[in-house]
Specification:
seven-stranded mixed sheet, alpha/beta, binds 6-O-phosphono-beta-D-fructofuranose
Length: about 350
């Protein structure tokens, strides 16, 4: 058995743990493994294919990033090549990829990625590549699994940042608005906001009313609490309004913290500062939880290959790691359930969602 492993999309802490779990589980079965570098680029002659054995995965569990590299621009079905007019042309290179997969003698592919990469995996499966997926994203927005690895580390990083903002906010009697990642899901904002004792948490699942946000800040002021911490998810949006984008063409989310901070300062007269945690949330050493989840996901992917359960994704459904059809996992992206215990807890603690 010869297994190819690829990591695609944005990186997330725990990727290396997955690679190590998969490689060692394969090696123990007497199988061979190889890594496709930078998403699928290695199979398209744009990068390398590297052997992966016990030696190559030694001492990597605690490392952030991915030893294989990654890209979120590597769609083989819509490969972008520069056009003579300075724009881009899209080419379908999927047949080339399938041919390369076969030429290397691979029997199965473990693809580690978020919804974009898992969607590509399904399309490659339809072209005859036996695939097992591993859900990865700091956003925690993949369906079918209670958690994706990387999320816990991102929440810890965000919580630590919020903790640090408290003292400066209080010393200066300011409002601090901190923007966290998460795309269209509010898990990072909700968990870090709750753990970091934020006063206001704005998430995409609950469009906010700025008047309500200001009400909360004023009521704290009236209680003698002259500072406030607002945690805003990058995908949060005002009631009846739009999400904020950093750029038009690729529609990358970002900029909501600035908008909210300006509006708060204008409405309350309180000095307000904003900051964006950005890619810090994707970096650093994975937490114990993410290392364990990564190792468990990687080893389970190999077990599912041994059982020939192709087209499935490994998923955490505590206490077990189970196989969920990728199609099913992608059908319903995960969002913060409005009736969740965390939302109820936040409300009980007096946190405002701006609603
Ligand atoms: O999906 C992970 C993520 O970090 C999102 O939270 C964020 O919106 C996006 O990727 C950022 O992507 P990029 O690395 O392309 O800026």
């Amino acid at each position: 058995m010869k297994v190819a492993i690829s990591t695609g999309g944005g990186d997330a802490p725990g990727l290396n743990a997955v690679i190590r779990g998969a490689v060692l589980a394969a090696v123990h079965r007497g199988w061979q493994c190889a890594g496709i570098r930078r998403g699928f680029d290695g199979l398209l002659g744009e990068d390398e294919i590297v052997p992966l054995g016990a030696r190559e995965v030694r001492g990597i569990t605690h490392l952030g990033g991915t030893i294989l590299g990654t890209t979120n621009r590597g769609d083989p079905f819509k490969w972008r090549v520069p056009a003579p007019d300075g724009g881009w042309i899209e080419r379908d290179r999927s047949d080339e990829l399938v041919a390369a997969f076969r030429a290397h003698g691979f029997d199965a592919l473990i693809t580690i990625g978020g919804d974009g990469t898992l969607g590509l995996a399904l399309r490659l499966m339809a072209k005859g590549i036996p695939v097992v997926g591993v859900p990865k994203t700091i956003d925690n927005d993949v369906g079918g699994t209670v958690a994706t690895f990387g999320f816990d580390t991102a929440v810890s990083t965000a919580t630590e940042a919020i903790d640090k903002l408290h003292s400066t906010a209080e010393s200066h009697q300011r409002v601090m608005v901190v923007e966290v990642m998460g795309r269209h899901a509010g898990f990072i904002a909700l968990n870090s906001g709750l753990a970091g004792s934020a006063d206001v948490i704005l998430i995409p699942e609950i469009p906010f009313d700025l008047n309500k946000v200001c009400e909360k800040i004023r009521s704290r002021e009236a209680e003698g609490r002259h500072f406030s911490i607002v945690v805003v998810a990058e995908g949060a949006l005002p009631k009846g309004g739009m999400e904020s984008y950093r750029d038009g063409e690729r529609r990358r989310l970002g900029g909501i913290a600035d908008r909210v901070a300006l509006a708060i300062e204008q409405a309350t007269g309180k000095e307000t500062r904003s900051l964006v945690l950005g890619h810090l949330q994707r970096g650093g050493s994975p937490t114990t939880f993410d290392r364990l989840l990564g190792l468990r996901f990687g080893a389970a992917a190999v077990r599912f290959i041994a059982e020939r359960r192709f087209g499935c994704m490994v998923a955490l459904q505590p206490p077990a790691i189970v196989a969920v059809p990728i199609e099913e996992a992608l059908a319903t992206p995960k969002r913060v359930p409005l009736d969740s215990d965390s939302i109820a807890t936040a409300r009980d603690l007096g946190v405002s969602f701006g609603d």
